[in-house]
UniProtKB/TrEMBL annotation:
This is C2H2-type domain-containing protein. Keywords: Metal-binding, Nucleus, Repeat, Zinc, Zinc-finger. PANTHER family: TRANSCRIPTIONAL REPRESSOR PROTEIN YY, ZINC FINGER PROTEIN 143. It holds the Pfam family zf-C2H2. Coiled coil: none annotated. One of its GO terms (molecular function) is DNA-binding transcription factor activity, RNA polymerase II-specific. Residues 1-23, 24-53 form the C2H2-type domain. GO terms for cellular component: chromatin; transcription regulator complex. It comes from Alternaria alternata (Alternaria rot fungus).
């Protein structure tokens, strides 16, 4: 891939997409999902919080 980035963090996120890395696991019991973006994990965690209400 020949994409270029001004910020290293953007490059890191892009590399995770190619590698399939998902370094942000959900800590909810019996969930088991992991995410490549922290924001996606935070969105997902909100769903768990809504289930508890």
């Amino acid at each position: 891939c020949n994409k270029s980035f001004y910020q290293k963090t953007h490059l890191d996120i892009h590399i995770r997409a190619h590698a399939g890395d998902k370094p942000f696991p959900c800590k909810a019991p019996r969930c088991g999902q992991s995410f490549s973006h922290l924001n996606n994990l935070k969105l997902h965690e909100r769903r768990h919080n809504e289930e508890r209400l």
